[in-house]
Specification:
With 105 residues, the chain is mostly helical. The protein has a single domain, classed as Orthogonal Bundle (Arc Repressor Mutant, subunit A). 60% of the residues lie in helices and 8% in strands. The radius of gyration is 14 Å and the shape is globular.
Length: 105
């Protein structure tokens, strides 16, 4: 899992669709789908239910979306204060987000 995976997932969660997230990020829809698939593979969890029109977050997806939202706010606030220059997902997403601590698929 890397920062790009989490950022793309956050965009999908906010947009409610892979296509909407891809448009906002100016990347292709297949690229977003691939990254989300990789993230789900790394975590061993399904994060999204794919629907005919958009996506719905699973329980695990809602939890990750909350972590991603909090990480984004933290980074924005910290950057505004000049306290950090770089961050990694590892620092922002604690080990409490290990796959075994999440709801079952």
């Amino acid at each position: 899992m890397n920062r790009n995976h989490v950022a793309l997932f956050h965009a999908v969660a906010e947009a409610g669709s892979v296509t909407g997230a891809a448009e906002r990020l100016h990347v292709s829809q297949p690229a977003v789908s691939k990254q989300i698939g990789e993230l789900e593979g790394v975590l061993g969890l399904r994060l999204l239910d794919r629907l005919p029109r958009g996506v719905r977050l699973t329980d695990a997806g809602r939890l990750l979306a909350e972590y991603a939202r909090n990480a984004k706010v933290f980074v924005a606030d910290s950057a505004a204060l000049g306290k950090i220059r770089r961050f990694t997902v590892r620092r922002l997403l604690p080990t409490a987000f290990a796959p075994e601590s999440l709801p079952a698929k």
